Amino acid sequence: MDKDGMLLKIFVCASIGSLIWLGSFVLLSGFFEVQTQTKPETVPVPSQNSELPVVYSSGFTVIAVRGEQDEITDFYLQYADFLRDSLVFVRVPTDTQIELSAGAYEVLRVHRPEMPKLFMLSELLSLAREELFCMAAEEAMGGLLGVRPKACYLLPEELFSELTGKSDAGIRFLAPESMVDTVLTVQHRAVTDRTEKEALIYTESYCDIKNVFYQVLPGEAQTSGYRPDSDAVSEMAQRFEAGMFELK
User: Fold this and answer.
1) CATH top-level class of 54-241
2) Can you list the alpha helix ranges (DSSP code H) found in the chain?
3) DSSP code of 123?
4) Taking CA 178 as the corner, what is the angle to CA 52 and CA 68, rounded to the nearest 5 degrees?
5) Mean per-residue pLDDT for 107-121?
6) Which residues, in sequence order, are CB contacts of 237 under 8 Å at separation 6+?
7) Residues 128-166 pLDDT 10s
8) What pTM was computed for the model?
9) Are the CB atoms for 180 and 201 separated by under 8 Å?
10) Where are the domains of the chain?
């Protein structure tokens, strides 16, 4: 075979080999590309030990207790500061005289035209009815505190008794054996505007609470009922937000 013929044969063989290699590469690349595209996306699972979002880290919650005649027998403002592992229960006397702000009064009258602007706290449930209670309680306390509570619970008396105990210092909330079971029990037996999912967000944070404080809403007992000191109440709320929970 002459030299030119040999070169032509080598060129043809090399070309065929290149085509075979290129075809294999394209085929395999296509295979792996399809495999990558069809691989299911991994969804991150949130850790049970994840920190509570800042938006949920502090704030007031209304805890009210209903009697057999739909009167409010106990009323607390709970302030939780999970960043400081602290919890404050502010007892609000049920004979507290409540005066709704103009804005709150108009909002509530849309739902219940007969709603008065002035009333005793013990009358709130009978005036607002169960379906409007949380809105009315949060509006009333928001006017006092200068900041609206984030949630509300209306507990039957028997449930309140299960959650609390009496001591020389007064009624105290008990530390439950199972926080999750307690949260679910309260959610199922109380009237609340907080969903079960929202309530469970707080479970781990409540377990970490190290400091619990009790005090009474600043004010003065009078013959006509308990009269809150609006300036002192506003100052109290500001102190809580600043992380100061001890009585002055």
Assistant:
1) alpha beta
2) 3-38, 102-111, 124-128, 130-145, 157-163, 179-189, 196-201, 203-207, 230-241
3) G
4) 100
5) 95
6) 60, 145, 146, 147
7) 999 999 999 999 999 999 999 999 999 999 999 999 998
8) 0.78
9) no
10) 1-39, 54-241
- The rounded distance, in Å, linking the Cα atoms of 246 and 248 is 6
pLDDT tens-digit readout, 21-59: 444 444 434 433 333 333 333 333 333 344 555 556 899
Show the tokens assigned to 41: 């996306």
Region of residue 152 (left: phi > 0; alpha: psi -120 to 50; beta: else): beta
Bridge partners, 79 (sequence order): 60, 88
157, 67 Cβ separation under 8 angstroms: yes
Rounded Cα gap, residues 237 and 52, in angstroms: 22
Q: What letter would DSSP give residue 209? A: -
Q: What is the dihedral of CA 152, 184, 240, 48, to 10 degrees?
A: -140
- On whether the CB atoms of residues 234 and 146 are closer than 8 A, the answer is yes
The residues, any chain, with a CB within 8 Å of residue 37's CB and separated by 6 or more, are none
Does the pLDDT at position 215 exceed 60? yes
Separation CA 170–CA 10 (nearest Å): 102
Query: How many other CB atoms are found less than 10 A from the CB of residue 200?
Result: 15
DSSP class per residue in 138-200: HHHHHHHHSS--SEEEEEEHHHHHHHEEEETTEEEEPPPS-HHHHHHHHHHHSEESS-HHHHH
